[in-house]
Amino acid sequence: MRASLIQIGVDEGESVDSRRRRAASLVRDQAGVDLVVLPELWTTGAFAYEAFGTEAEPLEGPTYEAMAKAAGDAGVWLHAGSIPERDTDGTLYNTSLVFSPDGQLTASYRKIHRFGFDKGEAVLMGAGTELVTARLTGTTIGLATCYDLRFPELFRGLVDAGAEILVVPAGWPERRLSHWTLLARARAVENQAYVLACGTGGTHAGVPQAGHSIVVDPWGEVLAEAGAGEEVLTVDLDPAKVGDTREQFPALKDRVLGLRAPRR
Predict the structure, then answer these.
(1) Residues 85, 111, 121, 198: which is the catalytic one?
(2) How many CB atoms lie within 10 A of CB 220?
(3) Where are the domains of the chain?
(4) Which helix (H) or strand (E) holds 68?
């Protein structure tokens, strides 16, 4: 299985429409890849709080349409990162979209853990309530977004739901880069799963982005890591390695605390 993480750069001088067209073009360039991943809130920038409301769109809005077509044109599974979604009642959500190779929406995930404490996303957006997985050809991915990476219980739930690949689009700030790589590796090791963590380059509303999209295998080994700027990171994955790792070192079977799926 080949995956590409598109670490798109967010230039504050570029319009959302222009970046949407450019992202669609980058997705089409990945024809022949199995899974393509875009970052969190790449249309606006994760720290461009004022743009959340002005650029919010319905689930099946312009980004949905552009990404569905790009996925179908390229024939790839596409995790299209996340968008500022406006629900029918006016509530905003940080919502991820997953499309099949024929351009059909197969899953959407509203970010559960909102960043900002008492400002920004934490007060401007509603919180999701459901864990979401998506069945791809030959494997299952679990969906999480950026700040979710700090909450291991979410990932345990995704693994219990069958996830073998944990996909984390993000708009992670440069000043906490060391946490980004540390947490990505930790989530991979403790869940014995692949982690595909896709960040952005550039600057969001004056906040420099970490970049450094990273792919980690179930043993915690870094298979590939991007730099700070715009970049496409492509890596080959072996979904069978997840089962092999869990069999060779069956730590998940020794869980005592919390809920877990029954053994099969």
Answers:
(1) 111
(2) 16
(3) 2-254
(4) helix 62-74
Mean pLDDT of 170-190: 98
Say whether 103 sits in a helix, a strand or coil. coil
- Tell me: pLDDT of 261 over 70: no
Residue 175 pLDDT exceeds 80 = yes
Whether 40 is catalytic is: yes
198 is catalytic: no
User: CB neighbours of 115 closer than 8 A, spacing ≥ 6?
Assistant: 121, 122, 146, 147
List 146, 164, 198, 230, catalytic entry: 146
Is 111 considered catalytic here?
A: yes
CATH topology of domain 2-254: Nitrilase/N-carbamoyl-D-aminoacid amidohydrolase (3.60.110)
Give pTM, 2 decimals.
0.96
Which two tokens mark 7? 């670490």
* 3-state SS assignment for residue 223: strand
pLDDT in tens, 13-59: 899 999 999 999 999 999 999 999 999 999 999 999 999 999 999 99
